[in-house]
Amino acid sequence: MKTVLITGCSSGYGLETARHFLAQGWNVVATMRTPREDILPRSPALRILPLDVTDVDSIATVLAEAGPIDVLVNNAGIGVAGAFEATPMDHIRKVFETNTFGTMAMCQAVIPQFRARGSGAIVNVTSSVTLVSMPLAAAYTASKQAIEGFTGSLAHELGHFGIRAKLVEPGYAPTTRFTQNSGVRIEDMIPASYAAFAEPIFAAFAKPALVTRESDVAEVVWQAANDSSGRLHFPAGADAVALAERAGGGRR
């Protein structure tokens, strides 16, 4: 049985991805800042471990407890929406610490065991904001675009050792807790001067033509983790697929 370690499993994409890999017969190491034993079905193939991807000691501890893994899924992230002008720089740094540096730190920590074994896969979950420019998401987009470039370059150097690196780009999922873990309220980042600009944007998000489901992302993460071709980009969700096609006929 293969083993996958998934970050950010307390809700949303990470939780559904853990369920999906379990259903496929894999050993799953589901990690989250505050472990909850009740959110996943009990299974001898499941371990739920605490992990803070911004803490080097926490990363080292969880990898020691997990033992050898075959796939790393970097899903942990912080959402942020609002006018860039009104987004505090300390919050932007917090977003980058998790979304960007946390992902990089996890990659750096698992690469040695993958390289020694000559196999393994890293799946980095970004966002459809990397496919087309979207308003009121400047800081979040920057944190995810950094991982897009990082993973593309990483795929070349790791490919030399038989290690695969992939990007999964989910669309808009209204059922996830996108900004609830950010610690900053959206309304506090929409100054009165931006209200007229933001109103129709939020109205459109309230009635999207196409959306992404958690199960869409879980299935595409599974596909990416098992893909042995040179494909790099995997949009996830009907809206993300449509955006990817519009952006370039489906990137690879």
Give the topology.
Elements: E1 3-6, H1 12-23, E2 27-32, E3 46-50, H2 56-66, E4 71-74, H3 89-117, E5 121-125, H4 138-159, E6 164-170, H5 195-206, H6 214-226, E7 233-236, H7 238-248
Parallel strand pairs: 1-2, 1-4, 2-3, 4-5, 5-6, 6-7
Helix pairs in contact: 1-6, 2-3, 3-4
Q: Can you give the helix content as a percent range?
A: 40-55%
Low-confidence stretches: none
Strand content range: 5-15%
- The class by helix and strand makeup works out as alpha/beta
Largest sheet: 7 strands, parallel
Shape: globular
Number of helices: 7
If you average the pLDDT, what whole number results? 94
Say how many strands there are.
7
Q: Order of strands in the sheet with the most strands?
A: 3-2-1-4-5-6-7
Cα-atom Rg, whole angstroms? 18 Å
- Listing every helix as H and every strand as E from the N terminus to the C terminus, the arrangement reads EHEEHEHEHEHHEH
EC number: 1.1.-.-
GO molecular function: oxidoreductase activity
Protein name: SDR family oxidoreductase
Enzyme class: oxidoreductase
Kindly summarize this structure in a few lines.
The protein has 252 residues and is an alpha/beta fold. It has seven helices and seven strands.
Structure description:
By secondary structure, this protein is an alpha/beta fold. It is 44% helix and 14% strand. The chain is built from seven helices and seven strands; from the N terminus they run βαββαβαβαβααβα. It has helices at 12-23, 56-66, 89-117, 138-159, 195-206, 214-226, 238-248; strands at 3-6, 27-32, 46-50, 71-74, 121-125, 164-170, 233-236. It starts with a strand and ends with a helix. The mean pLDDT is 94.
